[in-house]
Amino acid sequence: MPVLELREITKIFPGVRANDRVSLTLERGEVVALLGENGAGKSTLMNVAYGLFSADGGEILVDGKPVRIRTPRDAIAAGIGMVHQHFMLVEPLTVTENIILGHEPARLGVIDFAGARAKVVELSQKYGLKVDPDAKIRELSVGVQQRVEILKALYQGARILILDEPTAVLTPQEVREFFGVIRSLVASGLSVVLITHKLDEVMEAADRIVVMRDGRVVGETVPSKTDEVGLARMMVGRDVVLSIEKTPANPGEPVLTVSDLVVEGSRKLESLKGVSLTVRAGEIVGIAGVDGNGQSELIEAIVGLRRPKSGTIDLKGHDITHAPAHETIEAGVSHVPEDRHRRGLVLEFDLAENLVLGDQGVAPYSRGGITNPKVIYQTARDRIKDYDVRTPSEHVLGGALSGGNQQKLVLARELGRNPELLIAGQPTRGLDVGAIEFVHRRIVAARDAGKAVLLVSMELEEVMSLSDRILVMYAGRIVAEFKAGEADAERIGYFMTGGGSKDAGPSSDTMEGGAA
Amino acid sequence: MSETHEHIVVEAWWAKALRIAAVPLVSVLLAMAIGSVIIWLSGFDPIAAFRALFQGALGGQRQISETIIRATPLIFTGLAVGFGFRASLFNIGAEGQFIMGSLGAAWLGLLLAGLPTPVAIPLILIGAALFGAAWAFIPALLKAKVGAHEVITTMMFSWIGLYLSSWIVSGPLKEPGSIPQTTMLSSNVWLPSFDRLIPGLIPVRAHLGFVVAVLLAIVVLLVLRRTTLGYSVRAVGLNPGAAENAGISIARTTVYALCISGALAGLAGASEVLGTNHRMFDQVSAGSGFGFTGIAVALLAKNHPIGVIFAALLFGILQAGAGTMQLETGISVLIVQIIQGLVIFFVAAETIVTWFVKRRQKLKLEREEAVDAG
Amino acid sequence: MLGNLLNPDLFASALRLATPIALAAIGGTICERSGVVNIALEGIMLVGAFCGVAVTLLAQASSVAFIAQNATWIGLVAAVISGVLFSGIHAFGAITLRMDHVVSGTALNIMALGLTGFVLTILNGFTTGRNTAGASTAVRHMLNPVFDFATQRSGNFLQTVWYWIDGVFLSLTPIAYIAIIVAVVMHWALYRTRWGLRLRALGEHPKAADSVGVRVIASRYAAVLISGALGGLAGANLSLEQVGSFSENMTTGRGFIALAANIFGRWTPIGSYLASLLFGFAQALQLRVQGVEFLAKIPVQFFLMFPYVLTVIVLAGFMGRAVGPAAVGKAYEKE
């Protein structure tokens, strides 16, 4: 009898069926990988199992008996534990406090800290998850924080462990350790569901693979009967065309020159430890790397949102090392931000007002502090047409557009400024296929028009297909450089995950932007 | 955000106006309803009360003048608080900036007594605005530099300003005698009352300050809509991350916005000194509350400058009529303050409630669509 | 001259004056630790002060002997209950309606001002009076020599110590003692009990707390209501123990100073108490300054200003270094 069974689960969000009659079983002692692209519905399904979402249809059975899971408390009571992609840890509290939260050993309300600590140490030794029970979470590396999360689930008595994208921010050493932990957990009788989109890890760790696409289960297999290509085909539904049509690059003069850049991140630790790179006119330089290795800080430093500690940034002869955002914009830097809702658009502004963000003070949009609505709105109409932004008018509010159209709007604005340098951070995050192709084509067109383009993306396929040169960032440094076509995904991935670099161990001082 | 962007509907401008005005209107009605309940519970007749109120506010030329004269400072403070809100700043200390503006007007009014009116009055107004802006400057700086919450700092400055002006009015600027007030300003620095400007009007107290206030509201609207400063203020208030990314300095915009807010509140003080009282009183004994009422006005008007005019007039009606209400029915004027607080609560709460209602409707709609499609 | 200032009475006075601020500040600590900003402390204090006096007067006039004799204690309980109820409105607005916490709090402050003033006039039957007619319900001398310490020791040093302890600590009113106890107990509870741990998690990362089964909404409500109780108590201290009557707007900004004290005290109960002592000290100084010649020449308004100036200085100096609970002021959304 399966230890966990999800039967015909349906979950609907505004405008989208995230789960459409999905069924899944998990046997005791088994590792099932739940595979799918962004938006396939795998996280949603497991959030339903854990009680964070309420299902609109279907039922959940544990050990053959139906259970009602409406809150995480119910799930925990049923023996289901979950480690989320974004850790549910309280930073200022200690490891022990985080682990016992919600299930504190107490007498009359007073916590038995000694007993709690002892239990944490016991669990930690039993499962080989080394942690310091008294350390504060904010002092720990992401890999250790993940261990705390797992210990938390074990402390709560989980027999079924759900792990959501667990290796997204781990170093290769930590990934190896992680798989060891999985194996020992399973040996102790736990059953594991692994939510992931990493094909190689699925092949390595899973006993069974369930593939989801567009809210449905589209296939089930075992590693021995398939390979990464086959899995990819199941995930995407067609043979994945990875490369976009483009002519070879014709790079000109250097536009951006970064030398020995050292930048402190938000925790007063160095996120960039001496980065140097050059981007020429008419070329796309792509930075490949796992999120949280300094890419965000690099972009922020260039654009002027973060002051570098040392080093220089030069744009065609102008020193913009310490230039604030408005100066870099004036100097010719355009930026498509990684988070378009937080940095890219003002959702309550209409499209025209969004399109002048960054240029609101310059002619012809305004003169002497007074804006010129006629020019602003006319330009908006032109750009909306040019970039195929689907909207009834330019007076619509930014928040009313779909994600793809919002991104097209941002692109329209940034490219419309005719910059020298375009920095694109995760430019196709959360977009559908059509929008992705559009954005890619525009970026290549910008390159062909002689712009310098710096692309930062977590999607390796995107970096590989668009870039003329690929730099790999790991732990705040550039650890490898390739020309387009010179290396394959495996080789780049090796460097992305720290292979071959001097500090190939778990490093506690770089994991900042990632999981939290 | 919903992926079904084809469903974007662009509202007609009048539909939009109606939708925006609905929440404040309902809030006012609700607040008055609860006020009525309180009146009734205290043993009085609500209908008689409100009738007396409206009679007292709009019943005749003198009454309307009273309404206008009460509304005038509220337009200024409503604009002040509203402008701050646009930048996501809560200028609860408008009261203190009002006091400092009064002080500045009184002092300058005494100083510039010799100048001809068309020269003196604009100078005094500018001076009072600067006093108000200066009083908001340190809280603005503290917010921009160390993130000190402007609610606490401007509140503290309100008290500091209260005592400071109290000392000045009872000391250096005091009129000889026992009453803590300044000397009466000479008539050439008075804001003329309407009966001096409009022939055939009976002597009224309402003065040119009202016109200045209305014009200022239009100016503020233009600044918000048609200047880069206004654009920056709105951007910072709506999404500081995006504003920063666009090169807008959040720190600088914060300081500008709060100082402008202070200046507007300071002008309220000038209007009162030059037009209504022609002198300044010690506020400790005769506090005004214009700053706090300004908060209610701004919220009711959804921070829209033209809305502020109407909201201020509404509160002017409430306050002008309250005196008559007390006289005729014996109900304390403080009921108006209760209604004020209720209005704030309901306006802010209503926004959320309507959002809830809309969201539930939207969810329901999409659920039905999804069932259709699947 | 300065010797006139530095006596136990000054410090005792500081403790007394600090009490309402401290209670409100600790209430603010608990509330903000759960993630809710409570600007309404001022209004809650006012409501508590009012209800305390009103109910005391009603109880004193009662024909039941037990009620009449314990009128003040009954008034105190009424003050606490009124604080809880009033803060409940803020809880509803901020948590359930997800209003902006500051707006909700300000609305309540304005309502409190109007309500207390309004009901004041109703109760007295005349509409122009502002103070309750000389209701001297001061309990301030109730515990005056509570502990009968015999100073039999002959050593001068020990005598001075006893003199100071006696002067500073042994002539306080009940609520002042309660404040000290509350500070210690709350601090211990925050760090050593189940409730405290969950509260701290709530304000930093409500989603994490929710994910392990902590009831976010209920806990936040509880925290706001506790701060309401403490605020009501603070008001009772003000009206029943310090002044002996209720007058319009008698809190004069103490609720806001309490917020600053909380920040200064790093969002801990004991810290809030000690920070409030600072403000109490400033006020105590201000009251005694007339006795010191060269200071008496400065106009009284400058001394009245002093606590507020101090608050600004504290905020200016300490905001940058003090970081509050990460999720404070943000509404919590469950999917």
Please provide a brief summary of the model.
The complex is a heterotrimer of chains A (516), B (374) and C (335). By secondary structure, chain A is of the alpha/beta class.
Count of individual domains of chain A: 3
CATH topological fold name of chain C? ABC transporter involved in vitamin B12 uptake, BtuC
Described by strand count, sense and barrel closure, the largest sheet of chain C is:
none
How far apart, in Å, are the first and last alpha carbons of chain A?
Answer: 37 Å
Mean pLDDT score of chain A: 85
CATH topology of the largest domain in chain A, what is it called? Rossmann fold
Sheet/helix structural class of chain A? alpha/beta
Shape of chain A: globular
Classify the secondary structure makeup of chain C into a structural class.
Answer: mainly alpha
Radius of gyration of chain C: 21 Å
Secondary-structure arrangement, i.e. CATH architecture of chain C:
Orthogonal Bundle
Runs of chain C with pLDDT <50, length 5+? 125-154
- Summarize the main sheet of chain A: 6 strands, mixed
Mean pLDDT of chain C: 80
Q: How many helices of chain C does DSSP assign?
A: 15
> Order of strands side by side in the largest beta sheet of chain A?
6-9-10-3-11-12
Give the SSE string of chain C. Answer: HHHHHHHHHHHHHHH
Number of helices of chain A: 17
Q: What low-confidence regions of chain A span 5 or more consecutive residues with pLDDT below 50?
A: 502-516
Description:
The complex is a heterotrimer of chains A (516), B (374) and C (335). Chain A is α/β, with parallel strands linked by helices. Helix content of chain A is 32%, strand content 26%. Chain A is globular. The model of chain A is unreliable at 502-516 (pLDDT under 50). Chain B has a domain at 71-317: ABC transporter involved in vitamin B12 uptake, BtuC. Chain B has helices spanning 13-41, 46-58, 61-86, 94-111, 117-146, 150-170, 194-197, 209-226, 228-238, 240-245, 250-277, 290-300, 305-329, 334-373. In chain B, helix 3 (61-86) packs across helix 13 (305-329). Chain B starts with 12 loop residues before the first helix and ends with a helix. Chain C has one domain (2-140, 155-318): ABC transporter involved in vitamin B12 uptake, BtuC, CATH 1.10.3470. In chain C, 71% of the residues lie in helices and 0% in strands. Chain C contains 15 helices and no strands. Chain C has helices at 2-5, 8-33, 41-60, 65-69, 71-96, 101-124, 156-169, 174-192, 194-204, 206-211, 216-243, 254-264, 269-288, 293-296, 300-318. The chains are: A alpha/beta (516), B mainly alpha (374), C mainly alpha (335). Chains in contact: A-B, A-C, B-C. At the A-C interface, helix 2, helix 3 and strand 8 of A face helix 9 and helix 10 of C.
